Structures are given as structure tokens and as C-alpha cells.
Amino acid sequence: MRLSFYLLFISNIIFSQSISELKTRFNTYLNFNSSLDQSISFSDKSVSIKIAGKPDFTIYEGEQEILSALLKNKTASEFIPIYQWKKNNRLSKKQIDSLTKTIIHVVYLTSPSLVGKRIAIDPGHFAGNVTDARVEQKFIDFSPSSSNLLKDTVRFNEGKLTYQTATILKHKLEEQGAIVMVTRPQQNFTAFQITYDTWFVKRKKIILDSLVKSNNMDSKRYSILMKLTKQKLFWEFFRDFELGERARIINEFKPDATVIIHYNVDEKNTDWVNPTTKNYTMTFIGGGMTADNFSKTINKIHFLRLLLTNQLNQSEKLASLTVNQFNKELHIPIAQKHDADYLRDNCLKTSSSGVFCRNLALCRMINSPLVYGEALYQDNINECNQLCKNDYEIYNQIVPKRIYETAMCYYQALSVYFSKP
Q1: Beta bridge partners of 289
Q2: HSE-up of residue 149 (Cα within 13 Å, Cβ side)
């Protein structure tokens, strides 16, 4: 039985941390190759975000707890007025007490298991058919004529694989008493709960009109976007816009943990017309930010949440458990920093093997511990042959057994994550 009660006192639900501990988190997870050295400054009793060399927002010793609680319990947009009001002012005791009263916490008492845990699952991409997969450019299509390594045609798309993985994982978690939300409610649906085709025909103009009306888009960009084809609009606008909707849905759900499911490819396998012999497993978490992220206030707030809460530490724990399950159960080597250009050039390596800080939109925007999983290379010669076979029946659906095995890796990782403090 999941019990809940309301608390108005933050001292019972948040952890105390020093400025030096914040600096350790900053250096471990957030400061990509020292690129934030000129944007963030630490003293013994404060930490500041700096713009053009001048402090823009300062956290003083004694303010960490209330700001951490606010960042966890409010959306980034809701925190913007606080950011603009506080700036570099030191909060008085009266102001701290007043801010504390704006937070109503729901604290859940559960056993150290999956019972009652709120888990969000985001199946990456959306295509459930070949047409939409070509719009997203997330598909594998190999034929014997293009490769002497293949006997038969291999054709599938990532959006379908991620959705199948998510539905299996959802069932497994719910069997153990977890409360689960999936961002895409059915195959071929986007996070807007409709297909991209439907959105393009019926929602595109409404959305773009509303963005112009709210001064979030100028008329020149509006005119350009309105003329684009379905595929070009996806890359110019819809892809990032829909990621924002995924983050919004997840944050509204207020999960205890979030699983973002993807399948990888070999970046050096140009155009993916032939299979590769490479195969690595890896996971991503938030962090790895650079100074250009601070051009927008909303990203400063994402940074503050990642700095002031323990979400990055907990994400590393969950991601490490996940990648080790991939390695053990799927028999795939764990990627090292030199195994891909994007790992070397765009990621911070954590102390956990196969776990990298990467400033992806969802890793930055989601307000919970998370793992962004890249279980395997779809274009690997062995994996692609397994992924195009529907050879395993589970929960009234027939899927590639490799998909079931991957879902079980996420399930086992979450089980361990919630069983140990």
C-alpha cells in the first residue's frame, strides 16, 4: 500500500551539502573540458553564474537547501521569476521561510523495492513504419546485393524497437507494483499522442501561429517553416519541439526515475548500407555543459538543478547498473571514450565504466535521476540479423528475442537501483 502525506518543512526531505560538495559535482559532471571556468565561480561561501565576467546569479552558503527544493518541485519555467527576482541578492531568513511555504511536498513511504515507485519510460523516436522511419532517418535496410555478409534482406526501424522494449519493461515493472508512464502511448505515435502525419496536417499551423502570438517565433521563421516539406520540417522544427513535449510529460508525472530507450549505430558506418563488425554498449546522463548553454535563462536553471540536487549522482548509479547489465546479459563490450568520436569530443567520462555525461536535451531537461541507454549497435552484423526476427512471444506480442533481453536489462538495473539506498 502506497501511503502519502504532505510536508511543508524542507528539512525532512532534502539533504544538506556544502559549497565544496557543489564544486566537486561541478567538476565531476558539469564542466565540459573546463569550458565553464569563466562562467562559474566558486568561493568558500558562494557560487555564481557569470555572464560577460559579471555575476548573474549567486547561491550563498545556507541557501542551497531551499533552492534545491524549489528546483526539484517547480518546473524550469516556474523558477524563472525566482531567478530574475533573486539574482545576486542574499536571501534573508524571512524570505527563506516564505519560499519554503510555497513548496508542498508529497512524500511517499514505500518498501525498498519497486512497489509504488514512479518510473517514466521514453521510447526514443516514433516511427512504426518505413515511411516515417525515412523521415527520422532512423532505420536499417541491408540487402544481400549490397553486402556479402548477408543471406537475406534486413529491414527494421529504431522507433519500433524502442517502443517494443518500453512495453515489455512497463509490464515487468507493473507486475512488481511500480507506477509506470510511457511518453508514447502506442506504436507510431509521437509524444503529442498523435502520429507525425496527423500533427503535420492538423496541428502544424495551430502550433506555429501560437508561437508567433506568444512572441516565441518571429514572422520570418514562421514563413520559412510553413513552406517546408514534412521531412524538412521534422529536422528544422518538430524534432526539438517534440523532445520538449517528452520532457514536459515526464516532469509532470514526477518520476522517481526515468529510462530513455535508444539503440545505437556505428558512426563510422557511412550511410549504413552495409553491416559493421563493431558493437559497443554505453549509457548517458546529464552534464557536460558548455558556456554557450547560458545564453538562455532556462538552461541556467537546468544547470542549477543539476548542480544543487543529487540527480547526477543518482543517475550515474542507475546508468552504471544498466550498462553493466547490457554487458553481462547481452555480451557486448562496454564503450571507452576512444571508441567513438562523440564520446571523445562531446562527453565527459564518469568514474563508472560506460557512463558518460552528455548534454542531450532530455538529459538536461528531465527533472529526475535518469539513464539514457544505448544498448547495442543495430547495424552490427550479428545484431541486425537478430533484430529483424520476430522469434519471442511475451505479453501477447511477438518481438525479437533481443528486444526482450534488452528490456530485462533495464528491469534488473531498476530493481537493484531501488533495492539499495
Answers
A1: 31
A2: 15
Task: Enumerate the H helices of 144-194 as residue ranges.
Answer: 158-175
CA-CA distance, 149 to 407, in Å (whole number)? 28
- Exposure string over 58-67, b if 16+ CB within 10 A, otherwise e: bbbeebbbbb
Closest alpha carbon to 255 in 141, 147, 178: 178
CATH 3.40.630.40 fits 118-419, yes or no: yes
Residue 13 — φ and ψ, nearest 5°? -130, 0
C-alpha dist (Å) from residue 296 to 77, 208, 302, 336, 381: 12, 21, 10, 32, 43
Residue ranges per domain, the chain? 3-109, 118-419
User: What pLDDT shows up at residue 153?
Assistant: 78
pLDDT at residue 104, as a whole number: 61
**pLDDT band (50, 70, 90) for residue 100:** confident
Rounded CA separation 89/66 (Å): 14
DSSP 289: B
CB of 164 closer than 8 Å to CB of 398: no
Please count the other Cβ atoms lying within 10 Å of the Cβ belonging to residue 30. Answer: 23
Q: pTM higher than 0.90 for the full model? A: yes
Q: Is 245 exposed, middle or buried (0-12, 13-18, 19+ CB in 10 A)?
A: middle
Residues 6+ apart with CB under 8 A from 369: 256, 257, 258, 311, 314, 315, 317, 318
- Each residue's pLDDT tens digit, 84-95: 999 999 999 999
